[in-house]
């Protein structure tokens, strides 16, 4: 048990609502008829399909491969047939569609056990571990979905502390808690795997101090394992203690530099569910095809389920006794940082940790802000609550005034959008919305600026090229003149004038011959004129417009 | 099926501006009770006048500015302004004093600057200062605590005095009123008396400040501490203001105790306590950064002392607060806290 912990600024104490979903053991969710597997469930580059429509796939088969370092594979979560590879609704704040592989399951859930390769950690190098993890499709399961193989690569940096995040500070969410209760041994194995990949000196498993039962279980497992480099830390139950930056501060007392990464200060933070997935991949040769998910809110049976990635969320809601006819709001993630779905016919993805269901009949579990915001009275409650020690009231002021220079001056881009300021605001101002707006506007402006910079550069290069060509031409002319001209400048000038006069004369003659009335000519006449024109053009090099 | 898609966070703390304002009013209640006990019914009558005038002005201005009436009339800010202003008005003042003060506070100091949340100056203090400058006689005719007079002006008589200017028996305002302790000290120090000489034999002085006043000060302190506990106000402003007032008064008191009143006298006299917990802490017009609040509070404390001792007015809290209000945006700008992950500079 780790003793010395540190504080982070601000934070809010929230009602936990965790009892309902921690009373019963985790069950396997029913096998859905259709699995919808987005190719892009992580940060970075989307995976590339390696199956085609009509292919039979078995459970655990790789159906899309990573295309770069920052990418992750996708696997079939059950056996069946690929029926489509198309754009489908995905869980996204803006209700977007994205390319998905759609599998119609055959109900047999066949896997090819023979091909599943199990490994002994002692035989594996750090590089091999990362390779297996990437090909098992493992990404950060705490919410961000950053490809784990990349995050487990310290490159040339030294990792002092590996923090395993089991804080789970958002209300309602208990999937990590249940995972720790039920799979503690495997999580420890996962920690060892990650430690080896990172060459980390010590590991700290951070759990909120109100999760007594879970703390007890983890402590016992760590004690029994006998690894003295693994500690369990009981971190304060204050939201957002489970935020990466805050957790690092609580455990190590260090701050992640602005615009920097935890590894810059020798820390790497991984979620407990990611550790578990790493263990399944290395020890059992199982890719990431399922995860624990909390389903809570206005449903008959709130609980945790082990759900196959790609299972439609509406299936889960029905399975837990939710009435789809009376749905009013479905939130993916926690009530503080989760987003509301536009449509519940979207799949569970690797980063889905919680589904919060609200119905029109009972919207009680989520007392939300008033529709009518009052003016900011600068009470500073937001600044007291901000875990990044920002001044949200000033950010709001400048974001509202669209003063995007000032808003960056007040470090808008350090905002983690945790929602603490918004939560405590007595004026019920949708602060986070203002910050998102300001961020998006600034990104757009920068994109536009890049675009206009690019155009300007092109234009300037164009001008430069014309100028260069002009100079080159002049240089050539001068050279030519020097070659052919014995005569003096005076003669040269005269000749130039003479030439100009001749050109003018010729032009006058030509315009004089131009037909005045060409509308009423017969085809023969037109043909004749065309021929004459052609001949003249050939002779004089002057091309007349028809 | 149409799902609602609000943006996160999806939950909110059970708190509104009205909650905050109600807590301020609750915190002021002990002081109001104490005030009425020592100085009679006048305060309650004036509070009623101030609320009536204040709400009417607020409604009229909201109408003119085409803002919704309901939420703003219910936010409670007018009530707080009304109570704070009337605390600074002598209890037997004519009714129109309060009415003019509230008119200025709400119409000029608040709504002409953009209404709730936008006023750079504390409305109650603007109202008070306008009254003090325009009607110095009425505004300085304080009645001493009832226990000193041996007579209590009844409720009916109070109404008659405030609304009609009718004094009972053969009394006049002059006969009823008396210089406040701060005023007494200031005037008599100018007559080359020492602080001890002034205090001895003058029944208006209590243990620290004026008799009665110091008890109200205790109740204000109690309410203020509760507000800090409830996180309605921050601890920085009151501590910095009282601390700096105490510190500067101590320096001069130790240097020359016969010409400078004791630090405790300064803290328990006039509007120091009220200013520290209820006026300088007005969130809208004071500083909003933690360090800024300390500077703001300290500034108010020092300016209060300077005005009291060397200025033209017996008390200086209102002026000090207004002067610091002007400096608040600049102080805020230069006292931004170090953001997580940024190196301190």
Largest sheet of chain B: none
Sheet with most strands: strand arrangement of chain A: 1-14-13-17-15-16
- Secondary-structure arrangement, i.e. CATH architecture of the largest domain in chain A: 3-Layer(aba) Sandwich
Q: Over the alpha carbons, how many angstroms does the gyration radius of chain A reach?
A: 34 Å
Q: How many domain regions of chain A? A: 2
According to DSSP, the number of beta strands of chain B is 0
Highest-level CATH class of the largest domain in chain A: Alpha Beta
Overall geometry of chain A comes to elongated
Shape descriptor of chain B? globular
Low-confidence stretches of chain B: none
By secondary-structure content and strand pairing, the structural class of chain B works out as: mainly alpha
Quick structural overview:
The complex is a heterodimer of chains A (546) and B (345). By secondary structure, chain A is of the alpha/beta class.
């Amino acid at each position: 048990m780790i003793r010395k912990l540190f504080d982070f600024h601000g934070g809010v104490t929230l009602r936990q609502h965790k009892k309902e979903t921690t009373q019963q053991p985790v069950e396997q969710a029913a096998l859905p008829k259709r699995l919808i597997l987005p190719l892009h469930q992580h940060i970075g580059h989307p995976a590339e399909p390696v199956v085609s429509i009509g292919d039979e796939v078995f459970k655990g088969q790789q159906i899309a491969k990573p295309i770069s370092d920052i990418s992750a594979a996708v696997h079939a979560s059950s056996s069946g047939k690929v029926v489509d590879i198309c754009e489908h609704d995905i869980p996204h704040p803006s209700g977007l569609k994205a390319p998905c592989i759609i599998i119609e399951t055959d109900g047999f859930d066949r896997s090819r056990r023979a091909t599943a390769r199990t490994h002994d950690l002692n035989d594996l190098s750090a590089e091999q571990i990362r390779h297996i993890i990437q090909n098992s499709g493992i990404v950060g399961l705490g919410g961000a979905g950053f490809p784990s193989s990349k995050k487990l690569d310290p490159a040339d940096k030294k990792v002092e502390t590996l923090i395993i995040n089991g804080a789970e500070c958002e209300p309602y969410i208990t999937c990590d808690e249940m995972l720790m209760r039920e799979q503690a041994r495997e999580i420890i194995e996962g920690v060892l795997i990650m430690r080896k990949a990172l060459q980390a000196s010590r590991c700290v498993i951070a759990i909120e101090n109100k999760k007594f039962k879970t703390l007890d279980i983890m402590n016992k497992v760590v004690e029994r394992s006998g690894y003295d480099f693994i500690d369990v830390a009981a971190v304060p139950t204050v939201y957002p203690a489970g935020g990466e930056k805050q957790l690092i501060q609580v455990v190590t007392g260090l701050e992640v530099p602005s615009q920097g990464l935890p590894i810059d200060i020798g820390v790497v933070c991984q979620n407990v569910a990611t550790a578990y997935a790493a263990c399944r991949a290395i020890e059992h040769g199982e890719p990431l095809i399922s995860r624990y998910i909390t389903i809570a809110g206005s449903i008959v049976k709130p609980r945790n389920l082990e759900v196959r990635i790609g299972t439609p969320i509406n299936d889960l809601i029905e399975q837990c006794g939710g009435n789809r006819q009376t749905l009013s709001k479905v939130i993916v993630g926690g009530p503080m940082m989760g987003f509301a779905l536009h449509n519940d016919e979207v799949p569970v993805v690797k980063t889905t940790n919680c589904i919060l269901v609200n119905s029109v009949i009972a919207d009680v579990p989520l007392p939300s802000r008033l529709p009518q915001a009052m003016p900011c009275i600068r009470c500073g409650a937001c600044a007291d609550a901000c875990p990044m020690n920002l001044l949200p009231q000033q950010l709001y002021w400048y974001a509202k005034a669209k003063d995007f220079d000032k808003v960056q001056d007040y470090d808008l881009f350090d905002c983690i959008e945790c929602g603490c300021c918004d939560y405590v605001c007595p004026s019920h101002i949708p602060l986070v919305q203002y910050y998102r707006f300001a961020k998006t506007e600034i990104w757009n402006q920068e994109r536009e600026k890049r675009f206009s910079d690019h155009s300007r550069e092109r234009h300037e290069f164009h001008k430069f090229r014309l100028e260069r060509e002009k100079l080159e031409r002049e240089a050539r002319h001068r050279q030519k003149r020097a070659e052919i001209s014995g005569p003096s400048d005076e003669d040269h000038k005269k000749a130039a004038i003479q030439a100009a006069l001749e050109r003018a004369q010729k032009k006058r003659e030509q315009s004089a011959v131009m037909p005045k009335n060409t509308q009423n000519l017969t085809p023969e006449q037109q043909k004749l004129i065309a021929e004459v024109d052609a001949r003249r053009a050939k002779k004089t090099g002057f091309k007349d417009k028809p | 099926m149409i799902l609602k898609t609000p943006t996160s966070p999806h939950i909110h703390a059970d708190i509104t501006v009205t909650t905050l304002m109600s807590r301020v009013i609750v915190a002021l209640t002990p002081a109001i009770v104490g005030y009425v006990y020592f100085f009679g019914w006048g305060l309650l009558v004036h509070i009623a006048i101030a609320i009536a005038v204040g709400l009417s002005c607020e409604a009229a201005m909201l109408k003119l500015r085409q803002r919704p009436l309901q939420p703003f009339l219910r936010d409670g800010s007018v009530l707080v302004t009304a109570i704070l202003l009337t605390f600074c008005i002598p209890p037997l003042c004519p009714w129109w004093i309060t009415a003019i003060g509230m008119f200025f506070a709400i119409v000029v100091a608040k709504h002409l600057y953009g209404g709730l949340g936008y006023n750079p100056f504390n409305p109650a203090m603007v109202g008070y200062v306008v009254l003090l400058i325009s009607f110095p006689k009425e505004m300085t005719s304080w009645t001493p605590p009832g226990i000193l007079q041996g007579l209590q002006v009844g409720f009916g008589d109070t109404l008659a005095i405030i609304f009609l200017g009718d004094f009972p028996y053969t009394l006049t305002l002059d006969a009823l009123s008396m210089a406040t302790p701060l005023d007494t000290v200031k005037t008599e120090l100018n007559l080359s008396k020492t602080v001890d000489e002034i205090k001895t034999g003058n029944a208006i002085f209590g243990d620290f400040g004026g008799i009665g006043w110091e008890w109200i000060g205790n109740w204000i302190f109690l309410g203020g501490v509760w507000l800090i506990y409830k996180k309605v106000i921050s601890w920085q402003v009151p501590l910095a203001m009282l601390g700096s007032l105490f510190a500067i008064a101590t320096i001069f008191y130790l240097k020359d105790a016969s010409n400078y009143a004791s630090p405790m006298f300064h803290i328990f006299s006039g509007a120091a306590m009220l200013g520290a917990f209820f006026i300088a802490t007005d969130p809208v017009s004071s500083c909003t950064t933690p360090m800024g609040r300390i500077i703001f509070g300290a500034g108010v404390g020092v300016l209060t002392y300077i005005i009291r001792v060397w200025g033209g007015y017996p008390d200086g809290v209102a002026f000090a607060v207004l002067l610091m209000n002007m400096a608040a945006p600049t102080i805020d700008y230069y006292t931004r806290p170090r953001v997580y992950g940024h190196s301190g500079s």
